[in-house]
């Protein structure tokens, strides 16, 4: 195998590497490294393996592909238990085949509906197992890449179900839901709690009566959202934007109608505000925390082994994010698209359960929210890297699937809700879109101004001679103008062309 020694950029936007091979390494004893004499030898432009040092040019596109894999297809380097990371494909195949065959031959049911149900269960199980085996790890590797491959597989399975549903009729979809759960999913009309009643009556008892399970959901939801977004101003902006969204779409969903003090004080300030505060507080703790990922085999005490096992369920590292370190237009457009998709995904939750008359307490609503939350974690990471890192030219697959999920859910709501919902106020929704665009511009301006006033940025000189504000403490993707820090930081994190040295 060739050993890469040096990497350097040339004027034609390519990388030149020098590689060498020792004479005693050229016996090609390994089957994977053997060379077929009938194969066509590489041309002069390709890498030549020999006894002398030779040069090879690696294009910038190839470097970008390598960088994309480092960011979106993580590899576990600090393996602590070999048994948990070794492939067990033959074992899994044997057990899966035995289990499916046993279930197929042991169940004898003459009812077609039951056979279809068991068949769908087997297909879903097989698809999830295949997902765990063949799908990429994604941007996260803790607590185990297998979990995130399964999450990606569940998202793909869900998007396929949505695509199939879109081509059905409302009656057929409702029949399928009723078949799955006649009582919980078979309702014809949904009865929801009304919040906009006698809003002039503001008392402690009245306010306390609104502190139901949804208040806890607001708090926990925004604590998790703050952990994912990791930006104070953006979190508050999305929180306020959602309350505005409820006002705009209240003519379609009566459940969105609520008293002004409920929306402002209970939702935005109390529940959402506390959730954002707690979530960002956890972010600061994790940013300052040093993670020790030594192997369990090297830890002697039982207490130490237990602490290391608990650490497996915490992040491998914690990236401090800065959404506004690139050009103003790109940052604003990227944030605007992010917020619109976010709000659309939130709207889909309420429209889906209203259109198909599914009560909020039903497990299918809960597990859909859990699935969306799990998908959102790698999605936001991939989208953030795509928006802020100039080396990443394409969207991560989990982010792509999430966008497809949001679009298909919205299409299902529009198709099946046209006959149930009132007429859409196009002017009002158009004004909402425009207001969010203006609000996004203000959010970007406020964030940049706040960063400058808080001494979080410093003017640095670019190669073109211009000066630009850059964050002092930034993630590795956002240090593009501070070349020395980029090389040093990325080499530590092993996600750039510096790793070829």
TrEMBL record:
Membrane spanning stretches: 117-135, 147-167, 234-254, 260-283, 327-345, 365-387, 399-417, 429-451
Keyword Endoplasmic reticulum listed: yes
Compartments, as annotated in UniProt: Endoplasmic reticulum membrane
Gene Ontology molecular-function annotations: L-serine-phosphatidylethanolamine phosphatidyltransferase activity
A GO BP entry: phosphatidylserine biosynthetic process
Chain intervals with Polar residues compositional bias: 1-19
EC number: 2.7.8.29
Domain of life: Eukaryota
Keyword Amino-acid biosynthesis found: no
Catalytic class of the enzyme: transferase
Mode of membrane association: Multi-pass membrane protein
GO cellular component entries: endoplasmic reticulum membrane
Pathway: Lipid metabolism; Phospholipid metabolism; phosphatidylserine biosynthesis
Keywords from the UniProt entry: Endoplasmic reticulum, Lipid biosynthesis, Lipid metabolism, Membrane, Phospholipid biosynthesis, Phospholipid metabolism, Transferase, Transmembrane, Transmembrane helix
Bias (Acidic residues): 24-35
Signal peptide from the UniProt entry: none
Functional description taken from the UniProt entry: Catalyzes a base-exchange reaction in which the polar head group of phosphatidylethanolamine (PE) is replaced by L-serine.
Entry's family note: Belongs to the phosphatidyl serine synthase family.
Name of the featured protein: Phosphatidylserine synthase
